[in-house]
Design a protein that fits this description.
Blueprint (H helix, E strand, L loop, with lengths): L16 E10 L11 E10 L5 E5 L18 E3 L23 E4 L2 E9 L4 E13 L2 E3 L4 E5 L18 E3 L3 E2 L3 E15 L12 E10 L1
Antiparallel strand pairs: 1-2, 3-6, 4-5, 6-12, 7-8, 7-10, 7-13, 9-12, 11-12
Organism: Candidatus Thiocaldithrix dubininis
Keywords: Signal
Protein name: WxL domain-containing protein
């Protein structure tokens, strides 16, 4: 199954200062040569800080974009035949004939990172290509994601379309307080089958993850 490394482009800060001068000159009556005079000037400043957002799953490191799309490779596990079965031809064994069933899969973990100064960040995922082998499909919702940090939760994968969004908890930066979000975690992917009636083969699909700050 193809997973996603989505890096939502980094928009670097744009800083500008605008100044306007209000020049005023005050003179005193020409009474004595020692009469003091003064002038007052006002400057108005505007400082614009642009929004940025950085999001990665898998390879890559802030602040560089990475075009690599990581792949999550899961192998389904099944219940085993009764113990004591000997491999080979014409080997007799008493067995009730119940077929093995798929009961899960191996797991794969990928590093995830989100950084932004744009306020509340939410994450969602979209099924771009169904999890399929030819005309056969597996519900993408059978793929479950757990996060190592509740501050950076993973969205629940839908069968199709786009998931509900989940919020990233702000903060996490040692220098930005709650004004800058900097969160990292490991997301672990597992297959939890909703049905055991699957034919052998490799089922492939694509998810697109998106981080948004309004």
């Amino acid at each position: 199954m193809k997973a996603v490394q989505a890096i939502v482009g980094v928009v670097l800060c744009s800083l500008s200062a605008l100044s306007g001068a209000d020049k005023r000159i005050t003179t005193a009556p020409n009474i004595t040569p020692n009469q003091s005079v003064s002038a007052t000037v006002y400057l108005d400043f505007n400082l614009t800080v642009g929004k940025f957002i950085f999001f990665r799953i898998g390879d890559g490191a802030y602040p560089n974009a990475d075009s690599t799309v990581n792949e999550v490779v899961l192998t389904a596990t099944t219940t085993q035949l009764p113990s004591g079965v000997t491999n080979g031809n014409n080997q007799a064994f008493s067995w009730n004939g119940t077929a093995p069933v798929i009961n899960g899969s191996t797991s794969v973990s990928l590093p995830v990172e989100v950084r932004s100064n744009a306020g509340q960040i939410n994450l969602k995922t979209t099924v771009t290509n169904a999890l399929a082998k030819g005309s056969e499909t597996i519900p993408f919702s059978d793929i479950k994601i757990s996060s190592s940090d509740s501050n950076l939760p993973a969205p629940v994968i839908p069968d199709s379309g786009t998931s509900a969004s989940v919020n990233v908890v702000g903060g996490g930066s040692s220098i930005g307080g709650t004004l800058v979000t900097q969160r990292s975690a490991n997301w672990t992917f597992n297959y939890v089958p909703s049905t055991s009636g699957l034919s052998a083969g490799t089922y492939s699909g694509t998810l697109t993850f998106t981080a948004t700050a309004l």
